[in-house]
Prior knowledge:
With 226 residues, this protein is an alpha/beta fold. It has helices spanning 4-8, 16-19, 37-46, 59-71, 111-121, 141-148, 161-170, 186-193, 206-212, and strands at 27-31, 51-56, 79-83, 96-102, 122-135, 174-183, 216-224. It has a single domain, classed as 3-Layer(aba) Sandwich (Rossmann fold). Helix 3 (37-46) links the parallel strand 1 (27-31) and strand 2 (51-56). The relative contact order is 0.16. Mean pLDDT is 91; it is low at 5-10. S-adenosylmethionine (SAM) is lined by residues 10-12, 32-35, 37-38, 55-58, 61, 85-86, 102-104, 107-108, 195. The site of S-adenosylmethionine (SAM) has 22 residues, from helix 3 and strand 2.
Amino acid sequence: MVPEIGINLSRGCGNPTGxxxxxxxxVVVDFGCGAxxxxxxxxxxxxxxxRVVGLDFAPQMIERAKQAVISSGLQERxxxxxxADLENSQLPQSFADVVISNCVINLVPDKKSVYGEAYRxxxxxxxxxxxDVVLTEEIDPRxxxxxxxxxAGCLGGALAEDDYWQTIKNAGFAEIKxxxxxxxxxxxxxxxxxxxxEEFTPAPAKEDLAVVQGxxxxxxxxxxKP
Length: 226
Ligand SMILES: C[S@@+](CC[C@H](N)C(=O)[O-])C[C@H]1O[C@@H](n2cnc3c(N)ncnc32)[C@H](O)[C@@H]1O
């Protein structure tokens, strides 16, 4: 069961544990675990012999994730929640069977480092299961700058899709497979642009949002470290 705190504080745009094909006993790392919803879902799938590590650079989110694990009755499981930057997780190399991430990597300015770090900590044959946000094409740098005033809104950091796939290939991943791809509808785009809520991220100007309408795509994919 996922406790209310995990659901209420979930800011994801997908469900990586739904397509990661997690197996009992596997070691899973959640990049940007937030309030812990996917850590809990992963812990149920890998079972008592498995291990889940949630990483987030916001200590408040790690605190909330810890509460969510306790509320789920999973405190006896092998679950670790760490304050860490995804560009330098401090985890050993060849540590994980699977890296999952739900609507986080678009927020990180240096995606090359994040995918390099995921590659480093995965075992050979280990896999990625990622939900993220990309753009169908490059946007005007001045518009990007305006979106970047509020990184949390997910638009300022979103890469053009071709550059995104190239970044993953360059990190060394193979067998990159799209699980789903969905162009955000106007209400979805509006919600995404002021994620995690207008009290934190004021909505961008309507004219700016109109320019990217139809160009913001939610992607889900898997890839393998050969
Ligand atoms: C949109 S929320 C998604 C949280 C969670 N994955 C979910 O689905 O509910 C993005 C999360 O990424 C974290 N984050 C952003 N940049 C990060 C970085 N460079 N290193 C670690 N965590 C990061 C934020 O603190 C936040 O909790």
